[in-house]
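Handout, section B. The chain below has 155 residues.
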Amino acid sequence: MTGLFAPAIAERAISAMPMPAGYFNLVLRHYGTSASAVADLLAGTGIAAGDTEPRDEVLLWQTIQQIRNLARVASPGWALELGALLNNAAHGTLGVATASAATLEHALAVLERYAYLRAPYFRLDSETSGQWYRLHARRQIPLEDAVWTGLVELL
């Protein structure tokens, strides 16, 4: 499909992609320290405060809305703090695959190939030049700079 409407259709399709609820739930557990904090984190996500731990999946747009909420209410440095909580287990099979890779090169190749399955808002690609290796995170959906910066810091 071509034309002016194709990007909007593609954006809606990407935003509706499912992603594991683990990250969503981790944010709720760590930052939802009161009923009002939970309400702030869930605002606009379509997830009710009584259902604070979705089971398997949430939609990408719901996670992005939660991150927008978090960026609005959390103190500066929230992304680095949250990133520190993300151990291999938090990343599911991707964490297992990277941790069990034979070399750092293989682990980075796994991340480059499969990280979008855990977080479809970005894709990774890399380039090497001599002894340098550069990993790029590329947005897959339009995001405000403040939200994107937080997500890259978290990564």
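Note. The beta strands are 18-20, 57-59, 122-129, 132-139. Compare this with the example in section A.
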